[in-house]
What we know:
Blueprint: H1 14-22, E1 28-31, H2 36-44, E2 50-52, H3 54-60, H4 71-85, E3 89-92, H5 100-113, E4 117-121, H6 140-153, E5 158-163, H7 166-184, E6 188-191, H8 197-206, E7 213-215, H9 227-233, E8 237-240, H10 243-262, H11 275-281, H12 284-289
Parallel strand pairs: 1-8, 2-3, 3-4, 4-5, 5-6, 7-8
Amino acid sequence: MPYLRATDLPSGYAGDRFRALLEKPGILGIPGTHNGIASQQAKAAGFEACYLSGAAMTASMGLPDLGIITVDEVCFFIKQVTRASGLPVLVDGDTGYGEALNVMAMVRAFEDAGAAAVHLEDQILPKKCGHLNDKKLASAQDMAAKVSAAAHARRHLYIIARTDAAASEGMDGAVARAKLYMEAGADAIFPEALNTEEHFREFARRMPGVPLLANMTEFGRTPFYTKEQFESFGYKMMIWPVTSLRVAALAQEKLYAAIARDGGAHNCVDQMLTRKDLYKTIDYDGFEALDATIVKTIVPEAMSQ
Length: 305
């Protein structure tokens, strides 16, 4: 039923619901959902949490992932995804949108928007995707101060500290930073852009008892690993951050090319979600039922399949 029915709203803080998922056995798979309907489709597929990637949010706005969107713009996505799906949402907090005070403001804004968890990274602006070259790192102490500020400001938000240090400081540097971030108040660690199974396993061995997040992004430095493989490496969470956006963007590109070529979309109908299935996904009937003045919609027969 639609999110407007109070009886159907999730109970309890989002951060607590996220923690509860991590207390279950096994690894938590968290797909990227770049908008509301994507989060509904992820939920329908059986996922229990979803992810908002900075790269996916910016790309959906026609922008590069260089840390140039604002807290308010991210909160728009958080509200959209949480109210559409009701799932606990892990949000990419980039570098925290400034220094310690900015991080504290971000944490409160994200919580108010409905976020369950956030990850912060130890780059400086302008930041880059973790799988690109020439990333510039903040000092470990400056990043630890941001983590501490986030932990101080949160009411329930689950805090994951991401380190991009493996590429420039090696495994020793990445592990040292991760330990410092945990001491500063992080709940979990996200070692970004590890590129071999042994690197993933070594990081996990050197961070015993710490929940770890793995990033399975396409076209990056990490080879394709499955959820089961990451679990065997010692990881508690994994994300597919930009996958839904990539698939949707390619489908749209092909659609517009077909319309330009054929003078219409008639040759693409078999690639579309039907009106009937779209309405089912967004619970059109449930929303209509909230208002007795709305006459129940009858889907046109030609579009019912």
